[in-house]
């Protein structure tokens, strides 16, 4: 640590430039990462909302309806299925038309069809479910919002591709700018590096202080960016509570583990901090390694 501080004091402006580049890069990455995480959590939440509604013929026996329901549940593609009997449908009809007695007199439970409201685990499963239902007997009609589902799938895929492209660009830009900055820093010690090579110092020995300094700057920048971002998130927490009112939980799937991102919790913050710290350490180490290579080539 003493050597790192000494190196920083010797070249304060170059060290400050490298730190600021890392800080702004990591802060922007942090904002993008958390925003995308919340967006994915929201998409996962919305993916459970689209439904297929299948109306059976009025003569269809309940055993046939329950058979279809059980087969769908066993497929692994369905999150939940709600059975609406004739009586349930009539009660819903009465509630909707309670202010129109004439309509209530014209309809009885016997003429209303039983139905199943099917909630898929993923919207991509809905066309498959609808196609399966159309092939079953005693089916009167199958309804699902195909246009809405298609738009949701397109949005999800677009976000994924955009995130990969942006992260790739951000990493490349950061490494290039950091490498250039570190090269200016190392150039001031070119004669010292040449002398070390002449007396037989290994490449690892020469490279080590620059890599350690870069690691220190990367971790410091990630800690500062995380601290500022956490303060901003906590400051706007009441607004988020109001904006996300009605949504009890948002989560994303990480290697078969459901990570809860809303309500805010210590586990999510810890994972974000570890991720951004590793990201900062990696890009700073790679940049310093590339920069030192210029002066270590035989």
Automatic annotation (TrEMBL):
The keyword Transmembrane helix applies. Residues 51-142 form the FtsX extracellular domain. Coiled coil: none annotated. It is found in: Cell membrane. The keyword Cell division applies. It is a multi-pass membrane protein. Residues 165-297 form the ABC3 transporter permease C-terminal domain. One of its GO terms (cellular component) is plasma membrane. InterPro entries: ABC3_permease_C, FtsX, FtsX_ECD. GO terms for biological process: cell division. Keywords: Cell cycle, Cell division, Cell membrane, Membrane, Transmembrane, Transmembrane helix. The chain crosses the membrane at residues 20-40, 163-188, 215-236, 266-291. Belongs to the ABC-4 integral membrane protein family. FtsX subfamily. PANTHER family: CELL DIVISION PROTEIN FTSX (PTHR47755). This is Cell division protein FtsX.
